[in-house]
Design a protein that fits this description.
The chain has 114 residues and is mainly β. It is 0% helix and 51% strand. The chain is built from no helices and eleven strands. Strands 2, 4, 5, 6, 9, 10 and 11 form a seven-stranded mixed beta sheet that branches. A hairpin with a 5-residue loop joins strand 5 and strand 6.
């Protein structure tokens, strides 16, 4: 199973980015799918997860700014990030779990800087 994330980049403070992730190589519906991030020198941090039925959980630190949703196609997930701050700079990782294992994408860099 491979997860491929895209949509990272450089954005000014206050700007928005949308990350997308698509999984391939499994017949199962991944549930949950989610997003983590890791800033230099920090541990990997959970941001949001969403089940197959669309029930979402977003951590308090980004609630109201970050929104997770499942895509139209099976095993796709997006993370809409608004009002970005320099402290949101990190590598963002897509995550998914099926009945046999859990999977991680390689990460996409998000840099918030003026």
């Amino acid at each position: 199973v491979q997860l491929q994330a895209c949509g990272g980049g450089l954005v000014h403070p206050g700007g928005s980015l949308e990350l997308s992730c698509a999984a391939s190589g499994t017949f199962f519906t991944l549930s949950p799918m989610g997003w983590y991030r890791q800033a230099p020198g920090n541990q990997r941090e959970l941001l949001a997860t969403i089940g197959s039925g669309g029930r979402a959980n977003v951590v308090d630190s980004v609630k109201g700014r970050f929104f997770i949703s499942r895509g139209r196609f099976k095993n796709t997930v997006s993370l809409q990030m608004n009002s970005l701050r320099p402290e949101d700079t990190a590598v963002y990782y897509c995550y998914g779990r099926d009945p046999t294992d859990e999977y991680w994408g390689k990460g996409t860099q998000v840099t918030v800087s003026s």
